[in-house]
Amino acid sequence: MVALALVTSLLWGLADFGGGLLTRRLPALTVVVASQALAAVALGAVVVATGAWHEADARLWFAVAAGVIGPVAMLAFYHALALGPMGVVSPLASTAAAVPIGLALLLGERPGPWQCAGLLVAFGGIVLAGGPLRRGAPVRRRTIGYALFAAVGFGAVLALIAEASTSVNGLFLALFVQRVCNVATGGAALLVAARRGAPVLPPGGRATLLRALPALTFVGLADVAANGTYALAVGMGPVTVAASLAALDPVVTAVAARGVLRERLRAAQATGAGLAVAGTLLLASG
Predict the structure, then answer these.
(1) Nearest to 155 by CA among 92, 111, 217, 222
(2) Where do the coiled-coil regions begin and end (predicted)?
(3) What is the pLDDT, as a whole number, of residue 283?
(4) Which of 100, 153, 222, 233 allows an S-S link to 242, with CB 3.0 to 4.6 Å?
């Protein structure tokens, strides 16, 4: 369970970084729709190959709900990433873990003492990794608003997708349905935006979009894989632990932004990243 949750954080962190880079060159809504459409095609092939459609039941409505909420949250998140800095936006959005953790606690799940300590240390580190938010810090209020709105949406998606299946094949089908709904919701918004005259293609038009296809495919597939490993982790262990470990993705995004974009981490952010890792070790020891 610990390994799956950590893989989730790695995949989400890389997907966040890739999506953030793309939204600096492409309209955010186009990135959402294109990446999710490519992921839906890949998942459709998996569903056909495995015969996963036989797993269809009423639980798929959870996947439908996740598919409607997801694009809205993702669009807000990509707007925040485009405004940057990524090393601040990603930790704020990762507070989404509070939603499934809160639900799990309400439903009676009780982590052990070391895991409780790990939850507090890791979650505090994640928030601290976002850097100081006081007046004068290089983070716009609009950026913070987008990131926190995305956090609520992502948290709802995490809770919903964890309820959408009880088997591996059922998970494939649930993720496919979620992506189809993502594309339908995002596509409708893209159509409305186009009719209102908003740009839906980047400078350079379709040629630029075609050149971005490999990156869009990576973002879409990494996001899908992360949803899958998260759902499997939740099925194997406490939601409180799985969600907290999966929420370490900002550390991955911050490291990628530091290595590729040369974004500097403040002392508070570096301390937060260290606390997040320490909290992970405490959670794993429980």
Answers:
(1) 92
(2) none
(3) 59
(4) 233
Number of domains in the chain: 1
Q: What is the spatial distance between Cα 242 and Cα 247, in angstroms, rounded to a whole number?
A: 9
pLDDT value of residue 249: 78
Left if phi > 0, otherwise alpha if psi is -120 to 50, otherwise beta: which for 223?
alpha
Q: How far apart are CA 228 and CA 30, in angstroms?
A: 24
Say what the pLDDT of residue 70 is.
Answer: 87
* Tokens representing residue 190 in the block: 């893209």
Range of the domain at 75: 2-285
Stated as kind and residue range, the H or E segment containing 217 is helix 213-236
In degrees, rounded to 5, the angle at the alpha carbon of residue 72 between the alpha carbons of residues 170 and 228 is: 25
The series of mean pLDDT values per 10 residues for the chain, 286 residues long, is: 87 88 85 91 92 89 93 85 72 75 78 75 70 53 84 88 85 92 91 83 80 92 89 82 77 78 70 70 60
